[in-house]
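Obj.: predict assembly geometry.
Materials: sequence records (below).
Method: joint structure prediction, all chains together.
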Amino acid sequence: MTVDTASLGSARKTGGPWRTVWKVVSSPRAARPAAYLAAFLGWMLLAALRPRVPTPWKVFEFLWIELTGGSHGGVLKGQWAHHVAITMERFGIGLVISFVIGLAVGVLIGSSRYAHALLNDTLMVFLALPAIIWAFITVIWFGLGNQAPVWTTVLTAFPFVSVNIVHGVQAITPDLRMMSHSFGVSSYRRLRHLILPAITGYVFAGLRFAVIVGWNGVLLAEWFGSADGVGWRTRYWYDAARYQGFVGWVLLFLVIIILIDRWILAPMERRAFRWRDVHRDKITIQERPEALGAA
Amino acid sequence: MATVSVKHLSKVFPSSKKGGPPVRAINDVSFELSGQVFVSIVGPSGCGKSTLLNILSGVDTPSAGSVEVTQDGRPAQRGYVFQDPRLLPWRTVMQNMLYVSDLPEVEARTNARVYLDMVGLPVSDDLFPRQLSGGMQQRVGIARAFSVSPDILLMDEPFSHLDAITARSLRLQLQEIWSQTRKTVVFVTHDVVEAVQLSDRVIIMEHGGRIFDDMEIDLPHPRRAADASVAMKQVEILGMFEQMVEQTESAQGEPKRAV
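Observations (raw structure tokens):
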């Protein structure tokens, strides 16, 4: 973090060192590190009060061994890349399928009253079913392997995509629909240039939910019905009563979720909303002179 | 150039209040027009003029009577200019033009440029609507309507949301484009002065959805609001119009600001 030396100087004159500290801590740039710091301190406090909660040092030590492939003692070796890769693959496939299904179902329910009457309650049921139910059901259906985590992701995530898109489609202004109608614009073009761009904001809201609940789903399915992956590894350490391992893996997948949001979703969103972020004052267009003031 | 034939047209809307009487927006209206004419439909708010335009455009359907908008016996291709620009905000000016075009992409682009140039926006292709002023957005709307090579152009109070100066310059420009392209135009407005300046024929509608008067304006184009002959005609028709509004008010027994 960089500190503005000029403001430091003036603060020293007016209010002493505490004021300076307060100024730095209370700036918006400091808010995010402050949140992480608070969480860390809270964790230390919890570890001091509850004996079963591993201290941050123990967890970091564990993660170091796990990530570098060192020895946990005995024959246990650290391993992670394989588990993260296989989980990401299942998660990625599940997310793509749930996006496609969610989009189709959402556009259908949003644009047709018949489809709304037919499917909306069913969608609510899907929305209300927790990931753990799907994890059990898919493990019963597919057994151990890739199928159960992928389909748990799909079944937990797609309703969140759909329900957002239904609202997005319903929010499209009738003016633009009527314009398209009176110019006889084809339904493919309407979908591509009117409906899809109009619901972009809702699509991203849906995707964010999908990432979070889908990640839940994939981990639960792996916990109960898989022999590898992040969920399995987390359970492995839980069953081995190595709580630093359990907490370490929980921490690892939190980091993965945050990075997916920051590095993939946020840039996509910025790109999709270029039209909204352009500013009037940047333009240099000249109207044809004779068109102006001709009257 | 299209032919419009409206015969005994009526339009009734169900009441917005439950159990209320239905609302008669258009009441037995008949008129014909064809060829290179600029026709205005003028009337106070709620006289049914926009409903009439919606029926001509095919967005709405008649309750009774018939409406035919044809070109050599087939349904006419229609262009539409709305009160507000109605551009897709997430598409550039050029993409908005391509959105309504049936031509192959390359031709559609060339065609769009011709009409953007005509409305005085030659270099706006890659701008988003937000980057344009209201007047410029409305120009894009006008260019879009002309670009589909319509047989008939339907315009619904296209200048009513603009400031007076912008509206004035766009009126002149519209006359210029119209004299180059010579489309059949049906122009709806509540502004008698505007109607007289632009049109060859003015149809005045009154409350209750009936035609009050239908007259030719035989003056050369382009007309400026400041021309004496235009101004005189405007005053004359404005007088008639106000008389009509007053009659309606006294007949209804309650004063209403209509114009």
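Conclusions so far: The mean pLDDT of chain B is 87.
To do: check interface contacts against the pulldown list.
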